[in-house]
Design brief:
The protein is an alpha/beta fold and 361 residues long. The chain contains 12 helices and 8 strands.
Protein backbone atom coordinates (compact mmCIF):
# COMPACT_ATOMS: atom_id res chain seq x y z
CA UNK A 1 0.00 0.00 0.00
CA UNK A 2 1.36 3.35 -1.02
CA UNK A 3 1.66 5.76 1.92
CA UNK A 4 3.43 8.77 0.43
CA UNK A 5 1.74 11.38 -1.77
CA UNK A 6 2.33 11.39 -5.52
CA UNK A 7 4.28 14.65 -5.56
CA UNK A 8 7.12 13.20 -3.49
CA UNK A 9 8.09 10.69 -6.14
CA UNK A 10 8.67 8.14 -3.37
CA UNK A 11 6.61 5.03 -2.87
CA UNK A 12 6.21 2.11 -0.54
CA UNK A 13 5.92 -1.12 -2.51
CA UNK A 14 2.86 -3.04 -1.43
CA UNK A 15 3.06 -6.74 -0.79
CA UNK A 16 2.70 -9.08 -3.73
CA UNK A 17 2.08 -6.29 -6.18
CA UNK A 18 5.73 -6.06 -7.18
CA UNK A 19 6.25 -9.82 -7.17
CA UNK A 20 8.18 -11.40 -9.99
CA UNK A 21 5.69 -14.21 -10.50
CA UNK A 22 5.15 -15.90 -13.82
CA UNK A 23 1.51 -16.90 -14.14
CA UNK A 24 1.38 -20.28 -15.87
CA UNK A 25 -0.63 -20.27 -19.06
CA UNK A 26 -2.64 -23.25 -17.88
CA UNK A 27 -3.92 -21.43 -14.80
CA UNK A 28 -4.73 -18.33 -16.79
CA UNK A 29 -6.65 -20.48 -19.23
CA UNK A 30 -8.73 -21.94 -16.41
CA UNK A 31 -9.56 -18.48 -15.10
CA UNK A 32 -10.31 -17.25 -18.59
CA UNK A 33 -12.53 -20.14 -19.63
CA UNK A 34 -15.25 -19.18 -22.11
CA UNK A 35 -18.11 -17.38 -20.47
CA UNK A 36 -20.63 -19.97 -21.62
CA UNK A 37 -18.68 -22.78 -20.03
CA UNK A 38 -18.34 -20.85 -16.78
CA UNK A 39 -22.07 -20.13 -16.72
CA UNK A 40 -22.86 -23.78 -17.28
CA UNK A 41 -20.64 -24.78 -14.37
CA UNK A 42 -22.00 -22.09 -12.03
CA UNK A 43 -24.87 -22.67 -9.62
CA UNK A 44 -28.29 -21.63 -10.88
CA UNK A 45 -28.45 -18.93 -8.19
CA UNK A 46 -25.03 -17.98 -6.88
CA UNK A 47 -24.95 -17.01 -3.21
CA UNK A 48 -24.39 -13.36 -2.34
CA UNK A 49 -22.21 -12.12 0.50
CA UNK A 50 -21.38 -8.97 2.44
CA UNK A 51 -17.93 -7.69 1.51
CA UNK A 52 -15.81 -4.70 0.63
CA UNK A 53 -13.22 -3.08 -1.59
CA UNK A 54 -9.71 -2.06 -0.56
CA UNK A 55 -8.89 1.12 -2.46
CA UNK A 56 -5.27 1.57 -1.41
CA UNK A 57 -3.59 4.49 0.27
CA UNK A 58 -3.37 8.20 -0.51
CA UNK A 59 -7.09 8.74 -0.87
CA UNK A 60 -6.78 12.38 0.23
CA UNK A 61 -4.95 12.96 -3.07
CA UNK A 62 -7.34 11.00 -5.27
CA UNK A 63 -9.10 13.62 -7.45
CA UNK A 64 -11.74 11.09 -8.54
CA UNK A 65 -12.46 9.85 -5.04
CA UNK A 66 -16.16 10.74 -4.85
CA UNK A 67 -16.94 9.08 -8.18
CA UNK A 68 -14.89 6.01 -7.22
CA UNK A 69 -16.82 5.60 -3.98
CA UNK A 70 -20.17 5.99 -5.66
CA UNK A 71 -19.14 3.27 -8.12
CA UNK A 72 -18.13 0.99 -5.25
CA UNK A 73 -21.49 1.56 -3.59
CA UNK A 74 -23.25 0.60 -6.81
CA UNK A 75 -21.18 -2.60 -6.82
CA UNK A 76 -23.08 -3.58 -3.64
CA UNK A 77 -20.07 -3.54 -1.35
CA UNK A 78 -20.45 -2.52 2.29
CA UNK A 79 -16.92 -1.52 3.35
CA UNK A 80 -14.22 0.68 1.95
CA UNK A 81 -10.73 -0.10 3.25
CA UNK A 82 -8.04 2.57 3.34
CA UNK A 83 -5.91 4.34 5.92
CA UNK A 84 -6.05 7.08 8.50
CA UNK A 85 -2.30 7.55 8.28
CA UNK A 86 -0.48 8.84 11.33
CA UNK A 87 2.12 10.78 9.34
CA UNK A 88 -0.65 12.94 7.84
CA UNK A 89 -2.81 13.23 10.95
CA UNK A 90 0.01 14.28 13.29
CA UNK A 91 2.73 15.66 11.01
CA UNK A 92 4.30 17.43 13.98
CA UNK A 93 4.35 16.14 17.52
CA UNK A 94 1.17 17.18 19.30
CA UNK A 95 -0.25 18.95 16.25
CA UNK A 96 -3.24 17.00 14.94
CA UNK A 97 -4.62 17.88 11.53
CA UNK A 98 -7.84 16.24 10.30
CA UNK A 99 -8.10 18.14 7.02
CA UNK A 100 -6.56 15.37 4.90
CA UNK A 101 -8.88 12.55 5.92
CA UNK A 102 -12.12 14.28 6.94
CA UNK A 103 -13.15 14.65 3.26
CA UNK A 104 -12.25 11.00 2.58
CA UNK A 105 -14.45 9.78 5.43
CA UNK A 106 -17.21 12.17 4.36
CA UNK A 107 -17.14 10.91 0.76
CA UNK A 108 -17.34 7.32 1.98
CA UNK A 109 -20.28 8.17 4.23
CA UNK A 110 -22.10 10.03 1.46
CA UNK A 111 -21.72 6.94 -0.70
CA UNK A 112 -23.24 4.75 2.01
CA UNK A 113 -19.99 2.89 2.67
CA UNK A 114 -18.56 1.82 6.00
CA UNK A 115 -14.90 2.71 6.55
CA UNK A 116 -12.29 0.12 7.56
CA UNK A 117 -9.42 2.34 8.72
CA UNK A 118 -5.81 1.17 8.74
CA UNK A 119 -3.86 2.76 11.58
CA UNK A 120 -0.22 2.95 10.49
CA UNK A 121 2.40 5.08 8.67
CA UNK A 122 4.59 6.46 11.46
CA UNK A 123 5.68 10.10 11.12
CA UNK A 124 9.38 10.83 10.96
CA UNK A 125 9.41 12.77 14.23
CA UNK A 126 8.20 9.64 16.07
CA UNK A 127 10.84 7.21 14.76
CA UNK A 128 13.82 9.37 13.84
CA UNK A 129 12.92 9.26 10.14
CA UNK A 130 13.61 5.54 10.00
CA UNK A 131 10.82 4.79 7.49
CA UNK A 132 7.03 4.72 7.27
CA UNK A 133 6.81 1.29 8.89
CA UNK A 134 9.55 1.77 11.50
CA UNK A 135 8.33 1.45 15.05
CA UNK A 136 7.73 4.57 17.13
CA UNK A 137 10.46 5.22 19.67
CA UNK A 138 7.88 5.97 22.36
CA UNK A 139 4.83 3.74 22.78
CA UNK A 140 2.83 6.53 24.37
CA UNK A 141 2.96 8.41 21.06
CA UNK A 142 1.33 5.47 19.30
CA UNK A 143 -1.31 5.20 22.01
CA UNK A 144 -2.10 8.90 21.72
CA UNK A 145 -2.39 8.77 17.91
CA UNK A 146 -4.83 5.86 18.09
CA UNK A 147 -6.77 7.52 20.90
CA UNK A 148 -7.08 10.91 19.22
CA UNK A 149 -7.90 9.37 15.84
CA UNK A 150 -10.64 7.15 17.24
CA UNK A 151 -11.97 9.98 19.39
CA UNK A 152 -12.31 12.11 16.26
CA UNK A 153 -13.58 9.52 13.78
CA UNK A 154 -15.87 7.25 15.83
CA UNK A 155 -18.47 10.06 16.00
CA UNK A 156 -18.12 10.33 12.21
CA UNK A 157 -19.07 6.67 11.83
CA UNK A 158 -15.68 4.92 11.64
CA UNK A 159 -15.97 1.83 13.84
CA UNK A 160 -13.56 -0.66 12.22
CA UNK A 161 -9.83 -0.24 12.88
CA UNK A 162 -7.02 -2.40 11.52
CA UNK A 163 -3.74 -1.99 13.40
CA UNK A 164 -1.05 -2.03 10.74
CA UNK A 165 -0.89 -3.43 7.22
CA UNK A 166 0.93 -6.65 6.26
CA UNK A 167 2.89 -6.44 9.46
CA UNK A 168 4.69 -9.76 8.97
CA UNK A 169 6.31 -8.57 5.73
CA UNK A 170 9.36 -6.33 5.21
CA UNK A 171 8.76 -2.65 4.55
CA UNK A 172 10.86 0.53 4.76
CA UNK A 173 12.02 0.72 8.37
CA UNK A 174 10.63 -2.76 9.10
CA UNK A 175 13.10 -5.03 7.35
CA UNK A 176 12.96 -7.84 9.91
CA UNK A 177 9.35 -8.20 11.03
CA UNK A 178 9.05 -9.17 14.67
CA UNK A 179 5.79 -10.16 16.32
CA UNK A 180 7.21 -9.27 19.73
CA UNK A 181 8.06 -5.74 18.60
CA UNK A 182 4.79 -5.32 16.73
CA UNK A 183 2.85 -6.36 19.82
CA UNK A 184 4.84 -4.16 22.20
CA UNK A 185 5.19 -0.99 20.15
CA UNK A 186 2.17 -1.11 17.85
CA UNK A 187 -0.65 -3.41 18.93
CA UNK A 188 -0.79 -2.95 22.71
CA UNK A 189 -0.42 0.85 22.81
CA UNK A 190 -2.84 1.33 19.91
CA UNK A 191 -5.44 -0.88 21.56
CA UNK A 192 -4.94 1.10 24.77
CA UNK A 193 -5.70 4.30 22.87
CA UNK A 194 -8.71 2.85 21.06
CA UNK A 195 -10.21 1.51 24.27
CA UNK A 196 -9.74 4.83 26.02
CA UNK A 197 -11.65 6.55 23.23
CA UNK A 198 -14.46 4.00 23.19
CA UNK A 199 -14.84 4.22 26.96
CA UNK A 200 -15.14 7.99 26.82
CA UNK A 201 -17.57 7.92 23.92
CA UNK A 202 -19.60 4.97 25.14
CA UNK A 203 -19.14 3.21 21.79
CA UNK A 204 -17.77 -0.14 20.68
CA UNK A 205 -15.47 -0.78 17.73
CA UNK A 206 -14.05 -3.71 15.81
CA UNK A 207 -10.28 -3.87 16.48
CA UNK A 208 -8.49 -5.94 13.87
CA UNK A 209 -5.03 -7.47 14.05
CA UNK A 210 -3.18 -5.91 11.16
CA UNK A 211 -3.05 -7.55 7.79
CA UNK A 212 -1.03 -10.75 7.83
CA UNK A 213 0.01 -11.88 4.36
CA UNK A 214 1.74 -14.74 2.52
CA UNK A 215 5.52 -14.50 2.35
CA UNK A 216 5.91 -16.47 -0.91
CA UNK A 217 7.12 -13.56 -3.01
CA UNK A 218 8.46 -11.03 -0.54
CA UNK A 219 10.01 -12.91 2.37
CA UNK A 220 9.25 -11.95 5.93
CA UNK A 221 7.95 -13.78 8.97
CA UNK A 222 5.78 -16.86 8.57
CA UNK A 223 2.24 -15.62 9.28
CA UNK A 224 1.32 -18.56 11.52
CA UNK A 225 4.50 -18.16 13.56
CA UNK A 226 3.93 -14.40 13.70
CA UNK A 227 0.40 -14.82 15.05
CA UNK A 228 1.58 -17.41 17.57
CA UNK A 229 4.22 -14.98 18.79
CA UNK A 230 1.66 -12.18 19.07
CA UNK A 231 -0.23 -14.35 21.55
CA UNK A 232 2.98 -15.25 23.38
CA UNK A 233 3.78 -11.58 23.81
CA UNK A 234 0.49 -10.49 25.34
CA UNK A 235 -1.75 -10.13 22.30
CA UNK A 236 -4.60 -12.28 23.58
CA UNK A 237 -7.73 -10.24 24.21
CA UNK A 238 -6.53 -7.24 22.21
CA UNK A 239 -8.35 -7.81 18.92
CA UNK A 240 -11.88 -8.70 17.80
CA UNK A 241 -10.95 -10.04 14.37
CA UNK A 242 -7.91 -10.95 12.27
CA UNK A 243 -6.94 -9.61 8.86
CA UNK A 244 -5.47 -11.93 6.19
CA UNK A 245 -4.52 -11.28 2.55
CA UNK A 246 -5.17 -14.51 0.63
CA UNK A 247 -3.37 -13.63 -2.61
CA UNK A 248 -3.11 -16.86 -4.56
CA UNK A 249 -0.59 -15.99 -7.25
CA UNK A 250 -1.04 -18.36 -10.16
CA UNK A 251 -3.11 -20.92 -8.27
CA UNK A 252 -6.87 -21.42 -8.38
CA UNK A 253 -8.59 -20.00 -5.27
CA UNK A 254 -10.33 -23.32 -4.67
CA UNK A 255 -7.02 -25.14 -4.17
CA UNK A 256 -4.50 -22.41 -3.31
CA UNK A 257 -2.77 -22.74 0.04
CA UNK A 258 -3.04 -19.01 0.63
CA UNK A 259 -6.84 -19.14 0.35
CA UNK A 260 -7.28 -22.40 2.26
CA UNK A 261 -4.68 -24.12 4.43
CA UNK A 262 -2.90 -20.91 5.46
CA UNK A 263 -6.00 -19.27 6.97
CA UNK A 264 -7.02 -22.65 8.39
CA UNK A 265 -3.73 -22.72 10.30
CA UNK A 266 -4.21 -19.15 11.48
CA UNK A 267 -7.66 -20.04 12.72
CA UNK A 268 -6.24 -23.08 14.51
CA UNK A 269 -3.88 -20.77 16.42
CA UNK A 270 -6.78 -18.50 17.31
CA UNK A 271 -8.85 -21.46 18.48
CA UNK A 272 -5.98 -22.80 20.60
CA UNK A 273 -5.96 -19.45 22.42
CA UNK A 274 -9.69 -19.30 22.98
CA UNK A 275 -10.50 -17.08 20.00
CA UNK A 276 -12.38 -19.62 17.90
CA UNK A 277 -15.49 -17.44 17.85
CA UNK A 278 -13.64 -14.60 16.10
CA UNK A 279 -13.62 -14.09 12.34
CA UNK A 280 -10.80 -13.75 9.84
CA UNK A 281 -11.42 -10.93 7.37
CA UNK A 282 -9.83 -11.27 3.93
CA UNK A 283 -9.03 -7.58 3.58
CA UNK A 284 -7.16 -7.79 0.26
CA UNK A 285 -7.50 -10.16 -2.67
CA UNK A 286 -7.16 -9.51 -6.39
CA UNK A 287 -5.10 -9.81 -9.55
CA UNK A 288 -3.64 -7.31 -12.01
CA UNK A 289 -4.85 -6.94 -15.58
CA UNK A 290 -1.84 -5.02 -16.85
CA UNK A 291 1.92 -4.88 -16.46
CA UNK A 292 4.24 -7.84 -15.99
CA UNK A 293 2.72 -11.19 -14.96
CA UNK A 294 -0.82 -9.97 -15.41
CA UNK A 295 -3.96 -11.75 -16.55
CA UNK A 296 -6.77 -10.74 -18.89
CA UNK A 297 -9.78 -8.76 -17.73
CA UNK A 298 -11.93 -11.82 -18.46
CA UNK A 299 -9.72 -13.96 -16.24
CA UNK A 300 -9.86 -11.35 -13.48
CA UNK A 301 -13.66 -11.42 -13.61
CA UNK A 302 -13.66 -15.21 -13.32
CA UNK A 303 -11.54 -14.94 -10.16
CA UNK A 304 -14.31 -13.00 -8.43
CA UNK A 305 -16.72 -15.89 -8.24
CA UNK A 306 -13.96 -18.41 -7.60
CA UNK A 307 -12.52 -16.48 -4.67
CA UNK A 308 -15.93 -15.64 -3.19
CA UNK A 309 -17.04 -19.27 -3.26
CA UNK A 310 -13.76 -20.49 -1.77
CA UNK A 311 -13.57 -17.89 0.99
CA UNK A 312 -17.12 -17.77 2.28
CA UNK A 313 -17.32 -21.56 2.55
CA UNK A 314 -15.20 -21.29 5.72
CA UNK A 315 -16.90 -21.15 9.10
CA UNK A 316 -14.51 -18.42 10.26
CA UNK A 317 -14.89 -16.26 7.15
CA UNK A 318 -15.44 -12.57 7.69
CA UNK A 319 -15.91 -10.16 4.76
CA UNK A 320 -13.72 -10.47 1.67
CA UNK A 321 -12.34 -7.25 0.18
CA UNK A 322 -11.41 -7.03 -3.48
CA UNK A 323 -8.21 -5.12 -4.20
CA UNK A 324 -8.72 -2.60 -5.65
CA UNK A 325 -11.34 -0.07 -6.71
CA UNK A 326 -9.87 1.71 -9.73
CA UNK A 327 -6.58 1.36 -11.58
CA UNK A 328 -4.10 3.99 -10.43
CA UNK A 329 -2.43 4.46 -13.82
CA UNK A 330 -1.85 3.06 -17.29
CA UNK A 331 1.83 2.12 -17.23
CA UNK A 332 2.57 -1.12 -19.03
CA UNK A 333 5.58 -1.76 -16.79
CA UNK A 334 3.90 -1.45 -13.38
CA UNK A 335 1.38 -4.15 -12.51
CA UNK A 336 0.53 -2.36 -9.26
CA UNK A 337 -1.46 0.15 -11.29
CA UNK A 338 -3.86 -2.44 -12.72
CA UNK A 339 -5.69 -4.21 -9.87
CA UNK A 340 -8.88 -2.16 -10.14
CA UNK A 341 -12.45 -3.20 -10.79
CA UNK A 342 -12.51 0.00 -12.84
CA UNK A 343 -9.99 1.07 -15.45
CA UNK A 344 -8.00 4.25 -14.85
CA UNK A 345 -10.55 6.28 -16.85
CA UNK A 346 -13.37 5.02 -14.62
CA UNK A 347 -14.94 2.58 -17.07
CA UNK A 348 -15.85 -0.83 -15.69
CA UNK A 349 -13.87 -3.98 -16.24
CA UNK A 350 -15.85 -7.25 -16.39
CA UNK A 351 -14.83 -7.88 -12.75
CA UNK A 352 -16.96 -4.93 -11.66
CA UNK A 353 -20.14 -6.65 -12.84
CA UNK A 354 -18.95 -9.90 -11.26
CA UNK A 355 -18.51 -8.24 -7.87
CA UNK A 356 -21.87 -6.49 -8.19
CA UNK A 357 -23.55 -9.83 -8.86
CA UNK A 358 -21.98 -11.59 -5.86
CA UNK A 359 -22.17 -8.91 -3.18
CA UNK A 360 -25.15 -7.74 -1.17
CA UNK A 361 -25.68 -4.99 1.36
Amino acid sequence: MRTTPPHTGRRVTRTLLSLALALPAAVAAIAAAPAAAQAAAAPAAAAKYVGGVAVGGLQPWNPRRAADYQAMRKANVTWLRTDLGWQWIEPRKGRFDWTAFDPVVADAKRSGLRYLAILHAVPGWANNNAGDYALPANRSHMANYCYRTAQHYIPLGVTDYEIGNEVNLPHPGWTKPSAAQYTKYYLLPCVQGLRKATAELGKSVNIMLGGLAPTDWTGGANPVTFLTDVYRNGGKGTFNSLSWHPYTGADHPRTARQMNSDPDRLYAVMTAHGDGAKKIWATEYGQATGGPNSISETAQAALVGQSVDAWYAKKYAGPLFWYSGRDTGTSTSDREQHFGLLRYNGTAKPAYAAVTARMRR
